[in-house]
Amino acid sequence: xxxxxxxxxxxxxxxxxxxxxxxxxxxxxxxxxxxxxxxxxxxxxxxxxxxxxxxxxxxxxxxxxxxxxxxxxxxxxxxxxxxxxxxxxxxxxxxxxxxxxxxxxxxxxxxxxxxxxxxxxxxxxxxxxxxxxxxxxxxxxxxxxxxxxxxxxxxxxxxxxxxxxxxxxxxxxxxxxxxxxxxxxxxxxxxxxxxxxxxxxxxxxxxxxxxxxxxxxxxxxxxxxxxxxxxxxxxxxxxxxxxxxxxxxxxxxxxxxxxxxxxxxxxxxxxxxxxxxxxxxxxxxxxxxxxxxxxxxxxxxxxxxxxxxxxxxxxxxxxxxxxxxxxx
Length: 328
Known about the structure:
The chain is an alpha/beta fold and 328 residues long. The protein is built from 13 helices and 14 strands.
């Protein structure tokens, strides 16, 4: 077979879009072309994939290789397509059986040695795969994220050879659903505050009703101390809230941390933060401080020191309780 079709996912904000990766091997001058609106990291994947296939003991086909990432009008970024492209080349060249992989999706970066490295955004991908009832194969280091989705069938792989063995009746380790229990190990506690009864009463009312709070006072009166302990009196997160917050951190530059599962986030941006830092953005939109504080507390210390433009972008999120980023 000179044509193989493999499936993966592209990250677009909080959404994980299905991507069909078609690999075609043709006679002619040897070459490796990736089409379908790939950005720099995706175009560089051809060098990683070539080395990974060779160092794993497979033969890299000496043919004209065309890799198409469809739909072509969806931007593709990052190294998450490495594994799927490598699998497609092995299947197209007849070195791997593709029958067992028809309903599978692959996400992961390939090291030059053939090992599979972790990538960001696994949790939204796992949720989308569970909805579509597809089987997901992820790097071993991302197994904790995939294990948070109850209805997902997923496997973890450490090396390209592990997936080859999976097609030869030597199954990969399956990822079992593991509900994380929230253990609050925060050194801060609302009960530590002595006095300030009026302020504590206000924060308790705000925490119970989900209200905003504006604190005024001289320096050193305990405003920051009170705000930093407010997450400890908020109600425990529901499973849906915990998944939403974990998904946001999974696609951000912070990455997913299992130790933070179920903890209310507390974000305190510096007063020199720009508007994009607060609301998010970028060529491929990333969450800002407002989104990262979702289901938690956003504390703007020294509020008058923030620029007027930054304060104006807070108007819509405060009025509508959600934030939307649109790009031309």
